[in-house]
Specification:
By secondary structure, the protein is an alpha+beta fold. The protein has a domain of about 100 residues. Helix content is about 20%, strand content about 30%. The chain has 3 helices and 4 strands. Strands 1-2-3-4 form a 4-stranded antiparallel beta sheet. Strand 1 and strand 2 form a beta hairpin. The radius of gyration is 18 Å and the shape is elongated.
């Protein structure tokens, strides 16, 4: 008999997947989630991301996350031109921002956070406008 994972299991696996994906992004790098599919019997997430950075430009990347082995596989990428990116209407796409819960051991104590500086702001959508020719 096939054992189907519960929706909660898919959520747990998504969090593990996001931890792996987050290690690929550099600080300030922008990424959007274009598509995600969960194969319940094999416990595999397939993810398509749109990424943008100054060095590589716009690109669509596909990854597969295998929960059984806790491995993130790169399945390729395709460069995108500005016309394709404009057609996607980025404002309607979800930004990839992993919701990663820190481990209890990593939780700072109140004394350690007293007087700590707030984190640096992330670049805004407007930071990419020159690459898009000013159109939104």
């Amino acid at each position: 008999m096939v054992s189907w994972p519960s929706p909660d299991n898919a959520t747990v696996i998504r969090l593990a997947r996001d931890r792996r994906l987050a290690t690929l992004l550099t600080e300030g790098e922008l990424a959007w989630l274009l598509d995600e599919r969960f194969d319940a019997p094999d416990e595999i997430w397939t993810i398509d991301l749109l990424r943008a950075d100054a060095e590589h430009g716009w690109r669509r990347q596909r990854y597969k996350y295998d929960a059984a082995t806790d491995v993130l596989y790169f399945w390729g990428e395709r460069p995108l031109d500005v016309v394709e990116v404009r057609a996607m209407n980025l404002r309607t796409l979800p930004r990839f921002a992993p919701q990663i819960a820190p481990s209890p051991a990593a939780q700072p104590t109140p004394a350690a956070t007293a007087g700590a500086a707030s984190p640096a702001p992330q670049p805004a959508w407007g930071a990419l406008r020159p690459q898009l020719g000013g159109a939104a």
